[in-house]
Amino acid sequence: MPVTSLRRAGAVCLTGALVAAVAACGSGPTPSDDYLSGALAQQVTQRIHDLDYPYDEQSSFGFQMGNLQTQLIHDCVEATGLKVPPPDLTQPDPASYVPDVATLWLTAPRDFGVARSLSDPTVLASLRAAMAGESKDGSTHTGYPDDYDTVVYGSTDDPKDWLTFSIGDGGEVQVPVGGCFGQATQQMYGVPAVDYERARHEMPKVADVLAEAVSSKKVRSAVGAWSSCMKKKSYTAKDPSELGQSLSDWLTGAVDGKMTVQQVQAKEAALAVADKDCKTSSGLGTAADESFVDAADKALNSKQGVVSAYREMNDHALKLLAKRS
Asked: What's the whole-model pTM score?
């Protein structure tokens, strides 16, 4: 059932003359576990999928797509006759094994997946290798010819090679659509780089939708109660996004050898229980999920053409990725 609205609760406060009614008004948001229901949880999952396809399905897609584009750019550069070092492909970093902000706000998992990821010896080994690599000096890549950047990105003086987008606070950002970067983008997504970058810029973003959702009155009225509940359970966080810092610290502890995977598992399981209890007692879980679905529907409905086209572009990239795997 929907949580009680602030407007309705306020009306009760204004008309109730009894002390009991006043006490009820100050009792805070209505507890609710509707966010755990299959129906609401599925709605949230589907909206995230529509907003973040295909990256919501597998966190490694971001790295795979980036490495595919890097390889395509490298092939294009070599085709021009330039001799360059092998492409510097990236690997998942520790942050990719910590749930994103949307997950922390909108779900209450049995665990957060950190220990499950670390239980794979290859994951733990790769993270340790990545952290060791980050600590090395002299990692700057050398051996590129002077005209490398022009071949990759096009001319800085040619407006056809760059798109300019306005961002918040009157700022601007430039995106390359020329040179080998533009060619690789077109090869990946099956459309001119200009069309892809415009669609990517216009796509509703999970972060923006979430920001709108958590700024709603019913979420703001519940998050304080959630934070108070968590504090009573010895967890200090003003909102669910701050749980990510603890998870990140535990992951780092395991990678550094200061914690065992079993210790991480016990800590995140206890955190998950506390988070679930507090999201239920405060009503935050239901309020955040319902607000997110509403905000996502508004954003997606306003950009139906862009959403459809952007999905087709990513489908094209996924097919190319599968061929080259």
From this structure: 0.85
